[in-house]
């Protein structure tokens, strides 16, 4: 039986700001209230609005999780991390499937340029299940692939991971507190799953060991985003 790693009270909420209008995004951040500390900026918004958008969100008093999922040859990833380190960000993602050498270069670049930056390894996207992995030639289950990539991330000294809350407890049981775990695919009770397949409620994710949970559409599609933020935080605490 997998041990329960109850993080309720310590788990933090991250809003995934995946909307395509800059002014609406800024307004949403403001409407989400002061109790929300973290904002995730992904490829959609970063590609459209660039580094200045990151600075604008940071200037609102929010911590920024820049979710670019870097995956390229080792030198290119290392240089991208060096560039990103000049921005006011607190988290940045790379793909662990980029392999050992790429991750080693990434960790060295992060340590050289921004030691306090939390560099997170993405294991298996929460939109992928066993069938989807088989379709790209991965003959492991989603959980088995997560644990294999996690072991590799541990070997190279990565200190954070993005993984489904369904795998969080086992990662903690194997690796202890080596990793800060960020869990996407979080849906408050009653929320629509959308395109996510391996989902969980905020409280359950925290109980499984998630240090951070990522919530997007249930907040930004709500008439009153701040009330949803407060509801999720209440569920955690």
Q: Report the principal-axis shape.
A: globular
Architecture per CATH nomenclature, i.e. the level-2 architecture: Alpha-Beta Barrel
> What's the CATH topology name?
TIM Barrel
Give the SSE order as H and E letters.
EHEHHEHEHEHHEHEHEHH
- Biggest sheet strand order reads 1-2-3-4-5-6-7-8
CA radius of gyration is 17 Å
Mean pLDDT: 89
Task: Give the SSE layout.
Blueprint: E1 12-16, H1 22-31, E2 38-42, H2 43-49, H3 51-59, E3 63-70, H4 74-84, E4 91-95, H5 100-113, E5 118-122, H6 130-135, H7 142-156, E6 160-162, H8 165-175, E7 180-183, H9 202-207, E8 212-215, H10 217-220, H11 225-236
Parallel strand pairs: 1-2, 1-8, 2-3, 3-4, 4-5, 5-6, 6-7, 7-8
What does this structure look like?
By secondary structure, the chain is an alpha/beta fold. It has a single domain (12-236), classed as Alpha-Beta Barrel (TIM Barrel), CATH 3.20.20.70. The protein is 44% helix and 16% strand. The protein has helices spanning 22-31, 43-49, 51-59, 74-84, 100-113, 130-135, 142-156, 165-175, 202-207, 217-220, 225-236, and strands spanning 12-16, 38-42, 63-70, 91-95, 118-122, 160-162, 180-183, 212-215. Strands 1-2-3-4-5-6-7-8 form an eight-stranded parallel beta barrel, surrounded by five helices. Strand 6, helix 8 and strand 7 (180-183) form a beta-alpha-beta unit. Helix 4 packs parallel to helix 5. The longest helix is centred in the middle third of the chain and has 15 residues, at 142-156. The model has no long low-confidence stretch (mean pLDDT 89).
